[in-house]
Amino acid sequence: MDDIKLKDAQKPSGPVSIHNYKVWVDRNLCIGAATCIAVAGKTFQLDKEAKAVILETADQDTIETIIDSAKACPVGAIFIEDEKGNRVFPK
Description:
By secondary structure, the protein is an alpha+beta fold. It is 16% helix and 23% strand.
C-alpha cells in the first residue's frame, strides 16, 4: 500500500484532471466497496483507510470507463465534471 503511485500525492482522492475532466472521491461518502476498482482498476485503488484514491495511471482508463465506475459506486462517492465545470456524474 505504501507504494501506491498517486495522480496527486497532495490530494490522493482528487480533484484531479483526467482526460480534461475533473474527478474526485468524497472520502466522507466512500465506504471502500471497491466497485470503482473492479470497473476502473487503472484509476482507483483503496488506501490504508479503505478509501478510494486516484492513481497515476488513471489516464489509461477511458473517461467512459471512469464514468461507469462512478455509476457503479453504491454510495455515489465519485464525482466527475467536464472542462466547463458541468457535472457529468452524478447529475
